[in-house]
């Protein structure tokens, strides 16, 4: 493997966004120094490296900082060309992977966070919205699957990493919320895709212990419910 | 130039997003068939090609449709490698261009639309928010400029196209709103950058007539004010 330089990865163990970047680093076999960030009390380094968004993940490569999951994933693919490719080589297939990664990133994360932080009618509305978006994603992934262009049929890449970012903790989601999102009968393509990803050795190795994630998500849910009750 | 294939571009003359894609096509010297879309009465083709967002721009290359400005811009750069490069070749510089393109795309468009569609206190709040974001962008672009990595110092590319998407019609914005956003004293880097872009021959050739844009934006503003008054 080519000289990889010094890689520092600022994450937070339960952050879904950090989870996807971690998977990409592990898929490429890149060694890195890991810095766990406390998002309640952000480090000076995090504020220096990501002054615009002040969020994890941040990747620092030979002193240069890169922020934003999708930007980092592309950077990883373009910098370490050895190891598996995270985007297909065909421009049209790359465009499809980027389109759907952006879709998941822009349309599914916020609504998932909302479901965690709310109850009753507001939560139900968010759940309905989530199902609609999952339906769109299911149809899109079915098309990619038919074209032989969905990650788990070929290489695992950026699109898989983003999907895994969101649903890698699906068992903990189910336990905390009592809701199954990716149901086989309703979303057969998404279900098979998720199962294929979580069964990968590289994924199994990096997943946090189930009970730890359940407790972390429960804390996140409780603080969200508390703050929405007080506004 | 390599065989370019059949290129069809679905746009709308006043759409800022379409403006950026048009610039990229023109920069690369790609011949295309243009389809003007009526966004009030969307064509079956637009709904077929972009079923997820149902928006322009859409690029159709040899029958394959690509949607979403940033995805299209990357596709154009990767497909037609002759002509100017729209992203730098260094991965870190590419990451910076992507980061800031994403910032403009996600944080500046919606707030601009809001300023057009509102009045009074709501508009003032949006204007304040816009200035804050422009301040962040000014600082970011200053850093890129110092590094010799801002488009108008080198090649014009994706970041310039996105910035031009938003502010290419700045004279019409000023006439309709009575507000100057990119003021030299306040945002010297953004101001020089915008002036450099609008002075490019390729940009001058593609810009719609000023009065036509003023009228289009005035109609957009009037319909926005009307609908916000009725809710």
From TrEMBL, chains A, B:
One of its GO terms (biological process) is glutathione metabolic process. It is found in: Cytoplasm, Cytosol. GO terms for molecular function: glutathione transferase activity. CDD domains: GST_C_Tau, GST_N_Tau. Residues 90-217 form the GST C-terminal domain. Is involved in the conjugation of reduced glutathione to a wide number of exogenous and endogenous hydrophobic electrophiles. Belongs to the GST superfamily. It catalyses: RX + glutathione = an S-substituted glutathione + a halide anion + H(+). Residues 5-84 form the GST N-terminal domain. SUPFAM superfamilies: GST C-terminal domain-like, Thioredoxin-like. Its EC number is 2.5.1.18. It holds the Pfam family GST_N. GO terms for cellular component: cytosol. This is Glutathione S-transferase. The lineage of its organism: Eukaryota, Viridiplantae, Streptophyta, Embryophyta, Tracheophyta. It comes from Clitoria ternatea (Butterfly pea). Keywords: Cytoplasm, Transferase. InterPro entries: Glutathione-S-Trfase_C-like, Glutathione-S-Trfase_C_sf, Glutathione_S-Trfase, Glutathione_S-Trfase_N, GST_C_Tau, Omega/Tau-like, Thioredoxin-like_sf. It comes from the Eukaryota.
């Amino acid at each position: 493997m080519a000289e990889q330089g010094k890689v520092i990865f600022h994450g937070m163990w339960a952050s879904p966004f950090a989870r996807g970047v971690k998977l990409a680093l592990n898929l490429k076999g890149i060694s890195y120094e890991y810095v766990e960030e406390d998002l309640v009390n952000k480090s000076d380094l995090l504020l220096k490296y990501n002054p615009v968004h002040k969020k994890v993940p941040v990747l620092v490569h030979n002193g240069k900082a890169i922020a934003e999951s999708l930007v980092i994933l592309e950077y990883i693919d373009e910098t370490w060309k050895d190891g598996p490719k995270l985007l297909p080589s065909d421009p049209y297939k790359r465009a499809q992977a980027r389109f759907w990664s952006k879709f998941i990133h822009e349309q599914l994360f916020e609504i998932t966070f909302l479901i965690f932080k709310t109850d009753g009618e507001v939560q139900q509305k968010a759940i309905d919205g989530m199902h609609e978006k999952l339906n769109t994603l299911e149809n899109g992934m079915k098309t990619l699957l038919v074209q032989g262009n969905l990650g788990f049929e070929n290489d695992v890449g950026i699109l898989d990493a983003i999907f895994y970012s969101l649903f890698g903790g699906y068992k903990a989601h189910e336990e905390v919320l009592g809701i199954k999102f990716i149901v086989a009968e309703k979303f057969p393509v998404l279900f098979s895709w998720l199962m294929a990803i979580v069964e990968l050795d590289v994924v199994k190795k990096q997943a946090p212990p189930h009970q730890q994630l359940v407790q972390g998500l429960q804390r996140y849910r409780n603080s969200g419910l508390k703050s929405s009750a007080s506004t």
